[in-house]
């Protein structure tokens, strides 16, 4: 069995939905899935690694500044606080792969504006994306994390904490009701 991830999206900031092709014995099945398990931190970080490409491809920042971040593979806090990537889509036509990244920018007002990159291909030197190989490495790492999520790797579910206040300190449990019933019956 071979699985090829086609796209994935973080939903409600902690869940994932994705689409993949599964090939078994020359039979290809397209499957769309979603889960109610919270995504694990490695998966979230794999999405974050797409941020410099998202920012550069949408011309939100200048190439020299973003090229350094992509080359060093180090995200700065400014990028992480202003930009979020929530989805990617892979397409293959005529043997050439293209990538589309979706995300949003958090404005100074605290509101967010969503947008996506154009379909991005390796192309040639004049019209291609020069960091396409680095982008595809990030996509492959992300696909590996999605496969781990599919196999059950997830974040711990938050346990609800309940506050009882001062009344809980004064609470004294009742005596055993069955013992009281027997005493009354006797």
Describe the protein in words:
Helix 2 packs antiparallel against helix 3 (63-72). The termini are far apart. It contains 6 helices and 7 strands. It is an alpha+beta fold. Helices cover 32% and strands 31% of the residues.
Summarize the structure.
It contains six helices and seven strands. It is α+β, with helices and mostly antiparallel strands. Strands 1, 2, 3, 4, 5, 6 and 7 form a seven-stranded antiparallel sheet that branches.
What is the topological layout?
Layout: E1 2-11, E2 15-24, E3 27-35, H1 41-48, H2 51-57, H3 63-72, H4 77-82, E4 83-93, E5 96-106, E6 112-116, E7 120-121, H5 132-150, H6 177-185
Antiparallel strand pairs: 1-2, 1-4, 2-3, 4-5, 5-6, 5-7
| Helical residue percent band | 25-40%
> H/E series, N to C?
EEEHHHHEEEEHH
Number of helices: 6
Rounded radius of gyration (Å): 25 Å
Count of distinct strands: 7
Q: Which stretches of 5+ consecutive residues score pLDDT under 50?
A: none
% residues in beta strands: 25-35%
Q: Compute the average pLDDT.
A: 87
Number of domains: 1
The main β sheet shows up as:
7 strands, antiparallel
Backbone shape = globular
End-to-end gap: 71 Å
Query: Which structural class do the helices and strands define?
Result: alpha+beta
Distinctive features:
186 residues, alpha+beta, 7-stranded antiparallel sheet, 6 helices, 7 strands, 32% helix, 31% strand, globular
């Amino acid at each position: 069995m071979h699985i090829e991830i086609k796209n994935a999206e973080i939903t409600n900031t902690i869940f994932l939905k994705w689409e993949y092709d599964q090939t078994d014995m020359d039979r290809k099945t397209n499957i769309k899935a979603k889960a109610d398990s919270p995504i694990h931190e490695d998966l979230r970080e794999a999405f974050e690694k797409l941020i410099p490409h998202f920012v550069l491809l949408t011309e939100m920042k200048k190439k020299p500044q973003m090229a350094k971040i992509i080359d060093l593979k180090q995200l700065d806090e400014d990028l992480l606080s202003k930009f979020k990537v929530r989805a990617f889509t892979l397409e293959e036509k005529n043997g050439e792969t293209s990538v589309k990244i979706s995300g949003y920018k958090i404005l100074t007002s605290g509101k967010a504006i969503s947008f996506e990159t154009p379909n991005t291909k390796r192309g040639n030197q004049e019209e291609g994306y020069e960091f396409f190989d680095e982008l595809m490495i990030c996509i492959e790492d992300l696909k590996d994390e999605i496969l781990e999520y599919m196999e059950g790797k997830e974040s711990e579910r938050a346990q609800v904490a309940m506050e009882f206040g001062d009344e809980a300190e004064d609470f004294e449990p009742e005596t055993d009701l069955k013992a009281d019933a027997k005493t009354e019956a006797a």
